[in-house]
Structure formats: C-alpha cells, structure tokens
Pirin family protein (Streptacidiphilus cavernicola), 319 residues
Amino acid sequence: MPAVTVENPLVLPRVEAPDPTTSTARPVLQVVTAPEGYEGEGFPVRRAFAKINTKYLDPFIMMDQMGEVEYAAGEPKGTPWHPHRGFETVTYLIDGKFIHKDSTGGGGFLGDGDTQWMTAGAGILHIETPPEDLVVSGGLFHGLQLWVNLPASDKMIQPKYQDISGANVKLLTTPDGGAVLRLIAGEIGGVQGPGATHTPITMIHATVSPGARITLPWRSDFNALVYALNGRGTVGEENRPLQMGQAVLFGDGDSITVQADATQESRSPNLDLVILGGQPIREPVAHYGPFVMNSHRELQQAVEDFQSGRFGTIPAEHN
C-alpha cells in the first residue's frame, strides 16, 4: 500500500496529542464489518458504512473500498457511463491507475496517492476506466470512493473538479513518529489539506506502525468515523478490536484514539485507516441511485432531466 509516504516519519511536521486533562475522548459507539459486493463492470467493493445508521453519517452518504485486488492480464474493470446530481464524489487511488472522463470534456488520470474531487452539482455524466496498459498487463488496484453530500443551496451549482496530486497531500506524523498522516482535505493540528470542500470535513489516510498509538484532536462539532483498510488494532480508550474491512463510529468528544497491534500479518505490515469527520448538514436526504437530493420531487426531476439529456452528452468518441 504505497500511496504517498516517507521512510522516516520523524522528518514530518507533528500533530500534538490533545491535553488529556482538558480534552474529552470520544467513546466508541459501534464497530461494524463492511458487506462485500461488486460495482460497475464487476470490480469488488466493500461498503464501508453500510451498517451504520445514516443519521450518524451526515454529511457523508457512503464510502466504498475498491479492491484491494491483484488483476491478471485482461481483468481490470471500471464503470460504464452514469449520471450524478446533488453531491460530491471523492476518488482516492492508493494503488494502481484509473482514467476519468465526463460529459463536460473534463477528466484526468489518477495514479498512486492521487485524488479526484468531483462536484456533480446540477448534473454530470462520467465514466471511470483502467488505462489500456493496465488492462493488458494486469496489476494491483486499490482505492476508495467517498460520497459527500451538498447542502440544498449548493445542489444545483455547476459541476467542477479538483485534481489533488499525491505530491500535494500534506504529510504529517504523531509526536513519536509512529504514524504517517496523509491529510487530503480539512484541517488538523493547525495544518490545512489541499482539498476544498463545500461542507467542512476532514479526510485523512493514516498508516500506523505496529504497536504505535495515536490520539488526534478532533473538532467537537464534527462526527468521527474510522475505517480499516488493512491490518488490525484497537480503537478508543476502551481498546475495542478493529481489523481490515471494519468501520468505527465514535460518539461526542474532541479527540480520537487508535492503536495498531504489535504484530501484523506479513501482507499488511501496518494498520492503514481512513479517518473522516464532517459538520452535519442536518437537512432532509432523498437518495436514489446516483442522485442525492432533499425531496422525492427533486429526485423525480433529476430522473426526468437525465432522461431528457440535460446532464450533457457522452463525447462522440465514446458512442
């Protein structure tokens, strides 16, 4: 799991642990195992937050872990053309290559550690596919797609993109250098990540070394979610067990704690986590397939607009 990293975390800026005498540790409310399935043309996914009540996810809608899978030659798969309206998709590629194209003529290439932040807004058609050389050779593929809701005031804005190169992700560590923290969006420890968001959120990919314990400050007005990409450890002051493919929901407070087990599997030498939090929008959510709106009538309008071609057209070379 290379993503973006450094050999010696102690060269990185450090996020200081909050003072335990003045901070409140967030309790662990729930640890759940993500169900597995298939998406698009048949690539394997884990539905990271599928077993967590949606009222605790706000402003997030869902998150899929794509892979980790080692494709043979000819096996890499993507998604067909499909629409979105009313939210943002965040595609974070840890291992592999991916190409994105859309009905506005935009898009780009994602490699190890790159993120594409797509604001679907009023509506867009897009496709995500592996490049031809990866299809021919096969290879490792591993990534995430996170859906972030938009408030009603922003649901019909014009689509736009942020291409966040892995080289621009903010790399941080903990006081003892026991973790590499890749800050993709939001703020932690006074450091701002490169991703700009409509709703305040923080998104971190953390690699925690065997036996290391991290305690991070966390905004009290944010929710707090952790998902284990690889490895095993414990979460919270309660030391609840956590392993690959499990998600954690934390309660109220202003700090979160995670520890990696001292012994890890050879294929997962560290505990890799996605750490997420955001300021709840607290608006009605109507969700139907690729549309996330505030009412059933708005969903009906989205379907009508899509069927009427108002989301744009597929470029001629793809027809």
Summary: The two ends are 36 Å apart (CA to CA). The first helix runs from residue 132 to 137. The CA atoms of residues 26 and 253 lie 4 Å apart.
